[in-house]
Design goal:
Blueprint (H helix, E strand, L loop, with lengths): L1 H9 L5 E12 L12 E12 L4 H12 L2 H7 L19
Length: about 100
């Protein structure tokens, strides 16, 4: 969605964006680029298909924009989930 909004604002001939995701769990020790080295990690492989008569430079730029979308940034950050009963106060460390 972020890439599509950017292309529309620039007036680029982007016709559609298709995103395919594949989720897997991998051993942390098998991930050379990861900080965590023990246990299991979630891995999401992303394939982005841009339809339209875009130049290579436009495709490259839209790929960069897609990597900075708010959803991806949220998934790559540390996440704290705080659950609470309706009407109650949060319970630290619950999730």
């Amino acid at each position: 969605m972020t890439a599509a909004l950017y292309a529309r604002r620039k007036g680029w001939p982007l016709e559609s964006v298709t995103v395919r995701l594949h989720h897997s769990r991998v051993h942390a020790s098998d991930c050379a680029d990861c900080e965590t080295k023990e246990g299991m990690l979630d891995r999401i492989d992303v394939e982005i298909e841009l339809a339209g008569s875009l130049s290579e430079e436009q495709r490259r730029r839209l790929g960069e924009i897609a990597e900075r979308c708010p959803v991806r940034r949220t998934l790559e950050s540390e996440i704290e989930i705080r659950a609470r009963p309706a009407g109650g106060s949060p319970h630290p460390g619950s999730g």
